[in-house]
Specification:
The complex is a heterodimer of chains A (317) and B (291). With 317 residues, chain A is mostly helical. Chain A has 17 helices and two strands. The longest helix of chain A is centred in the middle third of the chain and has 29 residues. The chains are: A mainly alpha (317), B mainly alpha (291).
Chain lengths: 317, 291
């Protein structure tokens, strides 16, 4: 340490600077409260990050993570050689993409419709009913849909046949399955998703509509020139968030709606990792797939976040 | 407003679309309820649509008579209560200190928490941790790994910062209350609505969730309801699940029985939902302010 450094440390700043123990003592109860949750985060959120090393090791259950041998990128090479991996990657992107196309605009349209309703009680009734599917577990949704959409015994197909059509293999043929998967998603999330847009529409100053009406704008023109521009920041934010989540796919929805007949399109990263890792005990391989997904996902989210911050409140258009 | 022809046209289309959407949300549930109250014969011959045919309760008798089902119900109730209480306690304990700008290291702690929203170990490292801690087949495997939701934590922290008047806390502190006393005596009583909302979020997630049960629970006695229902519903349509359904599995369940199981497991939510809906919505609003 040089003499000038030492002088600086003893300099006039020192008496004012309180050391860490001062704050620990002053806020001891706050730190005490914070301790269990922080320990929780360290064990249950950061602990598994150590487990990621399994992707670079020949994991042996008996040796444990630490003592298993390092194999470098061996498992990643294996992953990238697997045909199945590209299939689940494609399916994940495909299902998320089609979902974005339909599940994203649906709540916006619904919010626009809901604001047009003059009748208060009817609006409240619609909201109550349309939010409901959000609170139902995927197991139950899957169960109900399998009953309703089954080719011969499902009521939807009974109706289609009664109207002179022929049975539609909603959940057993690939293209139909993708459509059903997406529609079920729209059905489940549309109502709940509209809350955000409704809130944002409620915040629009009424004067804007009055001015538009004086200018002779019809309701549709008001939506186009007042409502939509006003909720654009919300739409852009949600869009960016959704694009950031393109690589991430939940487990429960594809697991309950998928079946062996359509595995070619219904198998996604999460179900694949489950099958390879937990069912076939191929831990290292499955961890490598999971890590690949997390890293790409992180990059996507960070870059979309960055873009949204760059654009600020009024970007894109 | 003038009621012109176009006004009538617009409203007919508008209300028409809304009615269709409402029916699309309601009819599937009504259909399943109708199936569950109908006779086996009527169900198999496809006579049931929205109203039960040949009313009977045999499907429900079968569900209630299944000891493992009732056990699952009690297990799920216990699980949901424990989970909600622990999650809420942990969330409050984290959110309160982190809402104080005087807390040294606050940015570091928030950073550590927010990072976990973007990046996680993943399914297999999570599993290795849970099994390493000896929690497989334990109720704690369904509680501890999800014991704090970072998003709920941020919602609560925002609420503490914006909606609890700082002067009240200061005067309480002058009266000699320490931080924990202030939290319990002043802050929490002022935050009951948001605490109700977040508790409901935790409770509904736990009641409906089954992904972690698929991963961590093999012991049928500890199946939460959704996993139990999953095995009943997909028993005959998914051969690979027959193996996990055990030796004393009931014969291939009909749609009536499936319907009854669905109603059985969803009933608490369907009954409570209309009364609790406003809490859910207000929670989303608070969250939206942040997001």
């Amino acid at each position: 340490m040089s003499a000038s450094d030492a002088r600086q440390m003893q300099g006039p700043e020192k008496p004012r600077k309180k050391n860490i123990f001062f704050y620990l003592r002053r806020d001891k109860y706050l730190y005490l409260l914070l301790l269990p949750p922080m320990v929780y985060f360290l064990i249950f959120k950061y602990g598994p990050m150590y487990g990621i090393t399994v992707a670079f090791k020949e994991y042996n259950i008996f040796k444990g993570i630490g003592a298993s041998e390092w194999v470098g990128l061996e498992y990643f090479r294996e992953v990238f050689r697997m045909k199945e991996f590209y299939r689940v990657l494609r399916n994940t992107l495909l299902l998320n993409g089609v979902d974005l196309l339909f599940s994203f605009p649906a709540p916006i349209l619904l919010a626009l419709l809901l604001t047009e309703l003059n009748s208060k009680w009817f609006k409240r009734l619609s909201q109550t009913v349309l939010y409901l599917p959000h609170f139902i577990s995927w197991v139950v949704i899957g169960g109900i849909m399998y009953q309703l959409l089954s080719p011969d015994s499902g009521y939807v197909n009974i109706l289609i046949r009664a109207l002179g059509g022929s049975s539609v293999p909603f959940l057993t043929e690939r293209v139909h399955w993708v459509a059903s998967y997406v529609l079920i998603g729209v059905w489940q999330s549309m109502g709940w998703g509209s809350i955000l847009y409704l809130a944002s529409i409620t915040n629009i100053p009424p004067e804007l509509y009055e001015a538009a009406m004086i200018d002779g704008a019809s309701r549709l023109q008001q939506i186009r020139h007042v409502t939509l521009p006003c909720i654009r920041p919300t739409i852009v934010t949600m869009l960016i968030l959704n694009v950031g989540k393109m690589m991430t796919i939940g487990f429960e929805r594809p697991y309950t709606i998928g079946n062996t007949l359509v595995r070619e399109v219904s198998d996604v990263i999460s179900t694949f990792v489950y099958r390879v890792g937990l069912q076939s005990s191929n831990y290292s391989l499955a961890t490598a797939v999971g890590l690949f997904q997390s890293v790409i996902g992180l990059v996507l989210i960070l870059s979309t976040n960055y873009i949204s911050q760059k654009l600020g409140d009024d970007g894109i258009w | 407003m003038k009621k012109t022809a176009s006004w009538y046209l617009k409203n007919t289309i508008l209300y028409g679309v809304m009615v269709i959407l409402i029916l699309a949300c309601l009819l599937p549930f009504i259909h399943v309820v109708a199936l569950s109250f109908s006779s086996n014969r009527a169900v198999t011959s496809r006579e049931v649509f929205l109203w039960p045919v040949e009313w009977n309760l045999s499907a429900y008798r079968q569900v209630m008579g299944d000891a493992s089902m009732v056990r699952s119900l009690w297990f799920t109730i216990l699980l949901t209560v424990l989970y909600t209480v622990i999650c809420m306690a942990m969330t409050i304990m984290a959110a309160y200190p982190l809402s104080k700008s005087r807390l040294k290291g606050r940015r570091l702690f928030m950073g550590l928490i927010i990072f976990t929203m973007y990046f996680s170990g993943g399914m297999i490292p999570d599993y290795l941790l849970v099994s390493g801690l000896g929690l497989v087949n334990s109720i704690w495997a369904l509680i501890l790994p999800g014991a704090v939701n970072a998003f709920n934590l941020i919602i609560l922290r925002t609420y503490f910062m914006n909606s609890v008047p700082g002067e009240l806390e200061e005067s309480a502190s002058l009266d000699g209350l320490n931080d924990i006393g202030i939290l319990i005596r002043i802050v929490l009583p002022l935050s009951l609505p948001i605490i109700a909302t977040l508790s409901l979020f935790y409770a509904v997630n736990r009641w409906n969730g089954f992904q972690d049960a698929v991963f961590y629970i093999n012991d049928q006695a500890k199946y939460p309801l959704p996993l139990k229902i999953y095995n009943i519903i997909f028993n005959n349509s998914r051969p690979e699940l027959l193996m996990t359904s055990g030796a004393d599995a009931t014969p291939v369940p009909g749609d009536g029985l499936k319907g009854a199981s669905i109603v059985f497991s969803t009933l608490p939510i369907l009954v409570l939902y209309p009364w609790l809906q406003k809490y859910f919505v207000s929670g989303v609003m608070v969250g939206a302010v942040k997001a």
